[in-house]
Design a protein that fits this description.
Layout: H1 2-15, H2 21-50, H3 52-56, E1 60-64, H4 70-78, E2 85-98, E3 109-117, E4 128-130, H5 136-140, E5 151-156, H6 158-164, E6 171-174, E7 177-187, E8 201-205, H7 206-212, E9 221-228, H8 235-246, E10 252-255, H9 261-299, H10 301-309, H11 314-344, H12 347-350, H13 365-387, H14 405-408, H15 415-428, H16 430-451, H17 454-484, H18 491-500, H19 507-536, E11 546-551, H20 556-566, E12 573-585, E13 588-589, H21 592-595, H22 602-605, E14 608-612, E15 620-625, H23 635-638, E16 647-652, H24 653-659, E17 666-671, E18 674-686, E19 697-699, E20 710-715, H25 722-732, E21 737-740, H26 741-780, H27 782-794, H28 799-836, H29 847-867, H30 875-880
Parallel strand pairs: 3-8, 5-7, 14-19, 16-18
Antiparallel strand pairs: 1-9, 1-10, 2-3, 2-6, 2-9, 4-7, 5-8, 6-7, 11-20, 11-21, 12-13, 12-14, 12-17, 12-20, 15-18, 16-19, 17-18
Helix pairs in contact: 1-11, 2-9, 2-11, 2-13, 2-26, 9-13, 9-19, 9-26, 11-13, 13-16, 15-16, 16-17, 17-19, 17-28, 18-28, 19-26, 19-28, 26-29, 28-29
């Protein structure tokens, strides 16, 4: 029986293959998007896992956001006696200024990322510099050919040369030391991407770092020790041992299997969202598959009736055409796999700044096979519903071929009777109910498989169905409104308007497919515009332009004096801060490993910057509890002798929510080895968009007395004074780091725009798929439209009149799709920006007329491209076939 099914299905396909051209394209575009995204995800995973040791910098990494304690240093030094090689790296940000620069260039300074390495770096991989040379001794050995001493060699990223207007051989100043630029730093094996950097990177030795005097008590640094273990050493046992001994001190431990966790999570999330977008393209293409199959079956009514007359039952006939649908799906999926491999080649170009500099494409057959399998399932899902009509084709139809069975059950109904009819069919037709349930379940499983999450799969499936229902509702409302308007007297407009609602025209399907693509493009545009507007234009007029960090207590007076010299009317805001980490909440110890990888786990593992203030900050509002009004005793230095044993603290509302804190909750913080117990006195709502200094936790006055404070400051500096002020601070306080708010926001905006290229490309592919669906829906009624044009020609219709009629019909289809898609896209973008990002919504409404016009023009061109050849057929041969 299966052999017969395959033979008949193959015969039907080969005799009518030209009718399925657009079906192949609908499937191919969706499968191609899925294959491309899956190949990208596979390459990312393979790239990270294949070079995991080099990306981490060792077999095991021990890292902390502060200097290691003497006990930790003793433990790490003892590991060398067990046959391990250690590499110690210190990372921090600082200010670099040019010592030798062109005479015409003004004094200049630049925020940089400093990486200080020891003699064993790197344990894995290689450092690439230009010109190619033995870079190691050039870092370690003090130099005597500089303008001042101490002086060491350094390698810098090329961006620093452009910003400071210097060249290889020039000198720069870091802290109290000079450095001679020996070459350009091209590649570090453990540095995978520069998308989120605060400035160009500088490679120096740890000996040189000590000479700069940049590290002071409370300085913001990142210490890393990488270990290279013997090949036979049990790494998991060592990891467990170190976690047990060091985790309580806030030290993080990663093995090479966990290399670059932030990059891995970012790229995994990016692949996930792109994968769901590609699945949307496939589902939009599925609408074209359903239209093609439905139209094809309408043309094969006589064949189906003949098969039933010869003894085949509905199940057998359905099996034949189901086999044909799977055959067509396999051909379309194979074509899509080839398209996907082509798209895959340009993904690294679209996401250039977000990927490692030496990112290499890695081909694998598994993503290709997976994409083809998803395409086969999709073709099955969208073919089953049209195939149900085979049951209602009677064998007696062969004896009355003049009756158009395809039109027999089609009646003009408003949307409400249509819904009632479908519900009644589902209630009384068990087969249709089972098939409908199977389609819905398949859609959910397909979404869950693509997203690797049942919850996300369910959300996506119902979101997609909700979008279809919304589009269908909007389309039906437009058609209802069209029926209420008196038809125009001109034949051109009257005929085109009536054609939109004729049976078997698939106008609604075309509107759904195009509208879904337009909705995606519009919503993505609105989200991007809102984010970029918030970053670039929603900054308050009085927001600071600079943040200054690591100001030592004995430098605060000098710092204020320098700021006053340049901007006497706007004094800086200085706040003393100290860094800490969570130890306990309500008596329960906090184990950072438990929260690693969780959605909001960073609330438990992050470093908290604390301060103590008497007055509530301007952009904070108390939502629960009360702010303190009187000073309390110093709990930091006397908590074991004081009766209350805690200090009062005010906690930001989101932090309180995720940490499980409420009024009266007790928790303990570790402030550089000293525990401090705090009691929640109030919960605050913070306006983070103010760009002023805000904190998750604010203690009562004098609660942190005796803690190792540094200060952070904000100041609003006129643009013309920014460089002179930075230079003055670098010369007098080289350890102080100036962070320009505008540069950071520009970097974030650049990242958003880079991401938008890839996402918008897939959304554009969805619009193109909608256009292909329109072509498929038009071509499937090719013969019916050919008959109509022949009759119009016979009664005097000219070529220009027919062309105008078609243009109006397709233009109205595009107008409906554009109206519904743009309207829902605007609503969707507002919902996402308002509810998910909690940002003010901004939409450039001037783009709407242009987008609507492009949709209409695109629909007209697509329709005419599909039907233009029909205008050239002479009417007589066609009418003779009737």
């Amino acid at each position: 029986m299966l052999t017969i099914f395959v033979k008949l299905a193959w015969r039907e396909t080969t005799s009518s293959w030209s009718r399925f051209l657009f079906l192949f394209l609908c499937m191919a575009l969706g499968v191609g998007a899925i294959v491309a995204v899956d190949l990208f995800a596979h390459t990312v995973e393979r790239s990270i896992l294949g070079d995991a040791r080099a990306l981490l910098g060792g077999d095991l990494e021990i890292s902390a956001r502060r200097s290691f304690t003497p006990d930790t240093q003793d433990l790490l030094e003892s590991l060398s006696a067990r046959g391990m090689t250690a590499s110690h790296i210190t990372e921090l940000v600082g200010m670099a200024s040019a010592v030798t620069s062109p005479p015409s260039a003004p004094p200049n300074s630049q925020l940089v990322e400093i990486k200080a390495v020891d003699s064993t770096y790197p344990l894995y991989g290689t450092v690439t510099v230009n010109p190619d040379q033995n870079w190691r001794p050039l870092l370690d050995e003090p130099r005597t050919d500089c303008h001042s001493s101490p002086c060491y060699g350094t390698f810098v990223q090329e961006g620093l040369l452009f910003r400071l207007q210097i060249h290889i051989g020039s000198e720069i100043r870091l802290g109290h030391s000079h450095f001679k630029i020996m070459g350009i730093l091209k590649k570090e094996p453990d540095q995978v991407a520069n998308a989120f950097s605060l400035g160009p990177r500088i490679l120096i030795s740890r000996q040189a770092l000590a000479a700069t005097d940049l590290i002071r008590p409370g300085s913001r640094i990142h210490e890393r020790v990488r270990l290279k273990t013997p090949a036979t050493y049990p790494l998991s046992e060592l990891e467990g041992e170190l976690r047990g001994r060091l985790a309580r001190e806030g030290i993080q431990i990663h093995s090479f299997q966990e290399a670059q966790p932030r990059l891995r999570r970012f790229l995994e999330q990016l692949s996930l969202y792109l994968g769901l977008l590609s699945l949307t393209i496939l589902l939009v293409g599925g609408i074209g598959v359903a239209c093609t199959i439905q139209g094809f079956l309408a043309q094969k009514t006589d064949n189906i009736a003949t098969l039933k007359t010869l003894g085949a039952d509905s199940t057998q006939v359905t099996g034949i055409y189901l086999t044909q649908c799977l055959l067509l799906g396999s051909i379309g999926s194979s074509l899509g796999a080839l398209i996907g491999m082509g798209i895959f080649q340009i993904i690294p170009w679209m996401l250039d700044d977000l990927l490692p500099p030496d990112f290499k494409l890695a081909f694998s057959f598994w993503p290709v096979l997976k994409g083809m399998g998803v395409g086969m399932v999709a073709s099955l899902i969208f073919s089953l519903w049209p195939l149900l009509s085979i049951r209602h084709i009677s064998p007696a139809l062969i004896f009355r071929q003049e009756v158009d069975q395809a039109h027999q059950h089609e009646k003009k109904e408003s949307w409400l009777p249509q819904v009632r009819r479908i519900i009644n069919q589902l209630r009384h037709d068990r087969t249709r109910t089972l098939i409908g349930s199977a389609i819905l379940l398949s859609l959910i499983m397909l979404s869950a498989y693509q997203s690797r999450s049942w919850s996300l799969g369910l959300f996506f499936s119902f979101a997609f169905l909700a979008a279809l229902i919304a589009l269908m509702t909007g389309t039906n409302l437009l058609f209802w409104g069209l029926r209420q308007i008196p038809l125009p007297q001109r034949f051109l407009l009257r005929h085109s308007t009536k054609n939109l609602q004729r049976p078997g025209n698939f106008t609604k399907a075309m509107t759904l497919a195009i509208g879904l693509g337009v909705m995606l493009m519009t919503s993505l545009f609105g989200i991007q515009q809102s984010l970029l507007d918030f970053i670039g234009h929603q900054i308050p007029a009085k927001a600071p332009t600079f943040f200054f960090i690591d100001i030592q207590p004995d430098q605060q007076t000098s710092f204020e004096k320098i700021i006053k010299e340049y901007v006497p009317d706007t004094p800086p805001t200085l706040v003393p801060v100290v860094r800490s980490r969570l130890l306990q909440i309500q008596g329960q110890n906090i184990d950072p490993e438990v929260y690693k990888g969780q959605r909001n786990g960073w609330y438990f593992t992050r470093e908290y910057v604390l301060t103590s203030l008497a007055a509530l900050p301007q952009d904070n509002v108390i939502t629960q509890g009360t702010w303190w009004e009187t000073k309390h005793d110093n709990a930091f230095s006397k908590q074991n002798r004081d009766e209350q044993h805690y200090s009062l603290v005010s906690v930001e509302e989101d932090a309180a929510k995720h940490l499980g804190l409420s009024l009266g909750s007790l928790f303990t913080l570790d402030i550089q080895g000293v525990p401090l117990t705090a009691k929640v006195a109030s919960i605050r709502k913070v306006d983070w968009s103010s760009f002023s200094m805000n904190f998750f936790m604010i203690f009562e006055p004098s609660a942190l007395e005796g803690a190792p404070f540094t200060a952070i400051a904000t100041a609003r500096i006129p643009k013309s004074l920014e460089q002179p002020l930075q230079q003055a601070i670098v010369e007098t306080m080289p350890n102080v780091t100036a962070i320009h708010v505008g540069d950071v926001l520009d970097n974030i905006a650049r990242i958003f725009q880079q991401l938008a290229i890839g996402i918008r490309s897939l959304a554009l592919l969805c619009v193109i798929t909608g256009a292909v669906v329109m072509m498929a829906a038009i071509s499937v009624n090719r013969y019916r439209r050919l008959q109509e044009l022949a009759i119009l020609k016979a009664i005097g219709g000219t070529r220009n009149m027919l062309l105008g009629s078609l243009s109006v019909e397709f233009g109205l289809t595009g107008a409906f799709a554009g109206t519904v898609g743009l309207s829902l896209g605007v609503i969707l973008s507002w919902s996402i920006v308002h509810f998910f990002f909690d940002l003010p919504w901004y939409f450039q409404t001037s783009i709407l007329p242009l987008a609507w016009s492009l949709t209409v023009i695109g629909a007209i061109l697509t329709g005419l491209l599909t039907t233009y050849r029909l205008l050239g057929f002479p009417p007589l041969p066609i009418l003779r076939q009737e």
